[in-house]
From TrEMBL:
Keywords: Membrane, Transmembrane, Transmembrane helix
Membrane-spanning residues: 16-39, 51-76
Natural source organism: Desulfosporosinus hippei DSM 8344
Name this polypeptide is given: Acyltransferase family protein
Superkingdom in the source lineage: Bacteria
Amino acid sequence: MEATGKRFLYIDNLRLLVIMLVIIMHLSGTYSGFGSWYVTGGKPVGLISTVIFGFYQSFTQGYFMGLLFLLSGFFIPGA
């Protein structure tokens, strides 16, 4: 593959969106109370917050890392 120096703006925007989803996923994992964390404290999360966090995390984890790897692998030249 030749390096043309041409960037695909829509791919850059999609990558940015997926990277933001990764950051939000880590934040929601921290503040939702799901998973086993060494430090816990503060008020317990209510039912509505638990449902929202659970829906977001289960929906987003189904596709976002695979999409990020697909986008990064698209530009790797054949081995």
